[in-house]
Write a structure and sequence with these properties.
heterodimer, A: alpha/beta, five-stranded parallel β-sheet, 11 strands, about 45% helix, elongated, B: alpha+beta, six-stranded antiparallel β-sheet, five-stranded antiparallel β-sheet, 18 strands, about 50% helix
Chain lengths: ~300, ~600
């Protein structure tokens, strides 16, 4: 009997050492290549650490209310940590503050909030991305050629969109003859993006550059452009459709943020925080992929990470 | 506790000895078991890990052989274009490809990059795009050359981007014109089919299998994404050093078991990595259990050693306690101790010894008492004849004077004196009897010394029947007469008072107004060492003192104070005891 007690004591101790943490991963929406890769990264971290993940997300990125209730659910179910990509930079503040007050570790992946700070924040350098996009766009134009750009973001109230748009604006301001004619948001709706593009091009045919800052938005823009190669088009995303458009020359460059990396590191950071270790501060890498570089070994892995 | 230095108790020595021997033995056995067990676990882990890696390699080998067989079949068909129409050949190949989910397509290109045979209807990329791809260029250069690419995105068809591994081989075929031409056969295999072979291999809980090519470059790695993002490092240098075989090394703080094997057909090497801590996790549990059991054993050993040593040493301690009590002079406790044989024997011997000592001591006491009694008796016997002679001389003298009354008084007193002296052989008499004895003595002496002194005897009421040892006052009175009163010119006084003194003492006070004693004489009078003058004062007094002390203990005895030319005061102090009956003296 004593031996049994000892054995039980041991196994309890072992369990305590490898505590299984429950982590809620709350993305902006359920679908999408970007979020799919993020979730794959999170799963990879789960395999490496033996934690338990639950993915919660509204169907649509614009549904921040759905995201708020997802966070609330994570609080109610007493998760140890929450990995969150806030889809609205003020509306989620209350619920995030509440989660933190309950002792739940909160890690922001990709986007952040205006006033409420998380325990840790992992993101790409969206200022640098904006700058790289602008510079790549300018490279398609001859010196002095007028550049008239349309910027289409997905969600107006997210930190990443705001940062890219600001960076684009700043770089356009520095470039002579370059201007952003129109900047608006599609709310991650392909149809809205298509309509905006079509009407923008109709009302101002001189628009010769479009930035689509999200994959569904990019699809909408592409649908509006059809095979129109007069307009330079730089888009976010790694969908098969976008890759085909890149190969066909409709899209000039794809901006790829390594969201696999984002998901992996966010979950790892959450586990580090739970173990009382300070996570490594490092920006998530991104790259600009063109038709010429798309099959390079490095870009293959970035572009086709979730394809088979 | 006792100090650390110095002799230790048997119990401590025994406890420590038993504990040290048992614990050392336990530790030794545990250490041997542990070493044995851990080396066995390690060996088993190594063997099983190597087996898993070998299995993965065998599966892969089996798979690539399969592909080679299909390629061979395709090669044969390519030479039969004269006998079979193109669509028939394609149909046959397609049925093979369709039957296997892992093969994406099989295409035969001519050296210009145009498709000759294809199992897919999808639109191919331009010949130029195809010709420039690695798998195409690497396989060129001689018939039979074949090449396996690493995983890559297929670039054969437009708008389709599956991850594949390409097998390519330069073969000869017959073209539609019947000419033998060189062509390039490509078989694209689904990457996931190959990667599944590796992913299913579980080496510990987070171990993995990866492939490198002959340049040491990673062909496939399950953590490729993490490696690209610098989140994971692979120890390629160590694998380059160890071309083949099994080794362990420490990489990024974790001990890894690395197994390297060559892959047939492809110029790859398979590398299995398992983390030693995971493989040895069974050992951790075993270690914990062993430590607990060990701790338990040690505690039991210590308790047991204490109990055993206490059992052995208890009789010895008991014996020691008995010896101590004997040392203090207590011979009453029977020194018998149970326990083990040796101690029991020792105890018996000790008991015999103590018994003997007790007997010897009793003998000594008895002989001393006898000796004293004889001495006293002798003293008494010495005095009495002298006194009797003088008394009888006085009686004769009075008879000659016809002093009948005097004779009667004298003889009566003498008779009473002797009656009390004899007192039926008893040592204890009442105070009144003792005083009666003295009174008779004084009456006789008063007659003899012709009224040279007066005397008074008084006693507090109620003390008459209190006991005393007999004949203690007479020697004091005798001393007072012979050494005090006798030398006086004036009338002597002897006053005897008996009273109680708190607590519980009876005092018989004899006061005379004789010549007294100087201090020297006074201090000698009660001590044994004092000089004994022949016929000098003190022998009788000292005897009384000794008798009282012998009988009643050292709290009692004589108190003497004296001053020259003033007189002497002697107090006999005896304990107050319960009254006794006087001896029946036949009334005259």
């Amino acid at each position: 009997m004593l031996i049994t007690t000892l054995l039980l004591g041991c196994s309890n101790k072992q369990q305590a050492q490898n505590k299984t943490y429950r982590i809620a991963v709350i993305t902006m929406m359920q679908g999408g290549e970007f979020w799919g890769a993020l979730k794959n990264g999170a799963r990879s971290a789960r395999s490496a650490t033996g934690s338990v993940l639950e993915f919660l997300a509204p169907v649509n990125e614009s549904d921040y209310e759905g995201q708020i209730s997802a966070v609330q659910r994570a609080i109610d179910q007493q998760f140890d940590a929450i990995v969150l990509s806030p889809s609205h930079y003020t509306r989620l503040e209350d619920v995030v503050a509440k989660a933190r007050s309950k002792g739940i570790k909160v890690v922001f992946a990709d986007t952040s909030l205006m006033n409420v700070h998380p325990d840790f924040f992992i993101t790409a350098d969206y200022q640098a991305i904006g700058k790289a996009m602008a510079e790549h766009a300018f490279s398609h134009f001859a010196e002095g050629e007028p550049i008239k750009a349309l910027v289409l973001g997905s969600m107006p109230n997210t930190s990443s969109m705001t940062a890219i748009v600001e960076a684009l604006a700043a770089n356009f301001a520095k470039k002579e003859g370059a201007e952003i004619v129109y900047a608006t948001y599609s709310f991650t709706d392909e149809a809205i993006a298509k309509d905006i593009t079509t009407s923008a091009l109709a009302s101002d045919p001189s628009i010769n550059l479009i930035f689509a800052l999200e994959e569904y938005t990019a699809h909408g823009v592409a649908n509006a452009l059809k095979e129109n190669q007069q307009v330079h088009f730089i888009a976010f995303g790694t969908t098969q459709y976008e890759i085909q458009l890149l190969e066909r020359g409709v899209i000039d460059a794809l901006v790829v943020v390594n969201s696999f990396n984002l998901g992996y590191r966010a979950v790892m950071a959450a586990i580090d925080l739970l173990n009382g270790i300070k996570p490594i501060e490092k920006l998530v890498d991104f790259d600009l992929v063109t038709k010429e570089s798309m099959f390079s070994e490095e870009h293959q892995r970035l572009l086709f990470q979730t394809l088979r | 506790m006792k100090s650390i230095r110095g002799p230790h108790s048997i119990k401590t020595i025994l406890s420590i000895a038993i504990a040290v021997v048992s614990i050392s033995f336990t530790l030794l056995v545990s250490a041997i078991l542990f070493t044995q067990f851990s080396s066995t676990i390690r060996e088993n882990a190594t063997v099983s890990t190597r087996e898993i890696v070998r299995q993965v390699n065998a599966n892969l080998n089996y798979y690539t052989n399969d592909i080679l067989t299909i390629a061979g079949y395709a090669r044969d068909l390519a030479k039969q274009t004269n006998d079979l129409p193109r669509f028939e050949i394609e149909q046959r190949l397609r049925s093979i490809v369709d039957s296997r989910q892992d093969i994406v397509c099989l295409v035969l290109f001519n050296l210009e990059g145009e498709a000759v045979l294809s199992t897919s209807d999808a639109k191919l990329r331009s010949a130029k795009e195809i010709k420039d791809q690695t798998w195409f260029t690497r396989a060129l250069g001689g018939e039979g050359n074949f090449y396996f690419t690493g995983p890559h995105v297929q670039q054969l068809f437009t708008s389709s981007y599956p991850w594949v591994i390409t097998y390519s081989q330069q073969i000869s075929y017959l073209n539609e014109g019947g000419e033998t031409k060189y062509g390039l056969l490509a078989i694209d295999m689904n990457f996931w089919a190959v990667s599944e072979l590796c992913q299913n291999a579980r080496l510990g809980s987070t171990g993995y299998v990866y492939f490198i090519d002959n340049n040491g470059k990673i062909v496939y790695h399950p953590y490729q994404q993490l490696i690209n993002s610098d989140l994971f490092n692979e120890d390629l240098d160590a694998v380059q050093e160890h071309i083949f075989g099994t080794f362990t090394n420490t990489f990024e703080g974790r001990e890894r078991l690395v197994i390297v094997d060559t892959v047939n057909n492809a110029r790859w090497r398979i590398v299995g990595v398992a983390y030693m801590d995971e493989l040895m996790s069974g050992l951790d549990q075993y270690t914990t259990v062993m430590f607990l059991v060990l701790a338990f054993c040690i505690i039991i050993t210590i308790l047991l050693s204490r109990t055993v040593s206490a059992y052995i040493s208890r009789p010895i301690r008991e014996l020691e306690r008995l010896m101590n009590s004997v040392e203090r002079g207590d011979f009453s406790a029977p020194p018998t101790v149970g326990g083990n044989q040796e101690v029991a024997a020792l105890s018996q011997t000790f008991a015999l010894m103590v018994g003997r000592i007790r007997q010897l001591m009793d003998d000594i006491v008895e002989s001393q008492e006898m000796k004293r009694k004889f001495e006293l008796d002798a003293l008494q016997a010495k005095i009495n004849p002298h006194f009797l002679y003088n008394t009888l001389d006085s009686v004769v003298w009075m008879a000659e004077q016809n002093n009948t009354e005097g004779v009667i008084t004298m003889i009566t007193s003498l008779a009473k004196l002797f009656r009390i002296s004899i007192s039926k052989g008893r040592d204890i008499i009442t105070l009144s009897e003792e005083l009666e004895h003295v009174r008779n003595y004084l009456i006789i002496q008063q007659i003899r010394y012709r009224d040279k002194f007066e005397f008074s005897i008084s006693m507090e009421a109620g003390m008459e029947n209190l006991p005393t040892i007999k004949l203690i006052v007479q020697p004091i009175v005798e001393n007072a007469i012979y050494h005090g009163i006798k030398y006086l010119q004036e009338m002597g006084h002897i006053d005897i008072k008996v009273f109680k003194r708190k607590p519980g003492a009876v005092v018989i006070e004899v006061r005379d107004n004789g010549v007294g004693m100087d201090e020297q004489k006074l201090s000698n009078i009660l001590s044994y060492e004092g000089p004994h003058h022949k016929g000098g004062a003190g022998i009788g007094v000292r005897n009384v003192h000794q008798r009282i002390q012998l009988y009643y203990g050292s709290d009692y005895g004589l108190e003497i104070s004296s001053e020259l030319d003033e007189g002497t005061l002697v107090r006999l102090v005896i304990p107050e005891q319960a009254p006794i009956h006087p001896i029946k003296v036949a009334s005259s």
